[in-house]
Amino acid sequence: MKIVSGVHKIPGVRWSSAYLMDNVRLAVVDTGPPWSGGKVLWHIRSIGRNPADLDAILQTHSHPDHVSSAAGLARRTGARGYAHSLDARHRGESGEVLHYMAPLPFLERTLVDQTIEDRDVIPMLGGI
Fold first, then answer.
1. CATH fold of 2-116
2. How far apart are CA 28 and CA 20, in angstroms?
3. Which of 32, 49, 55, 87 is 20 to 30 A from 7, comparing alpha carbons?
């Protein structure tokens, strides 16, 4: 569902909201619970774009209902993960950010390729 020019709310994501920013490249803001990755990919295709156009996964915070599909989307699209440094402070042995405190089998660790700080400008949609 298009909200404003270049911003879509991804339909079908439950318990959370996921947004697609549609510019030359694509970015998704939050990915939803573990089963939401397919909905994100479907929406990308529904607006006439290719999932390979997904360039960035922006993670607003580390709650599982917001980031649990990020790892799968990154694998399927090659998108880079971004998170605030305070959310990226818990790291696994291989440098992955822990987005949950308990080892639950259906929640996958999410790699953050770049941490961001307050007042950083991310070069998407003219800067966010």
1. Metallo-beta-lactamase; Chain A (3.60.15)
2. 4
3. 87
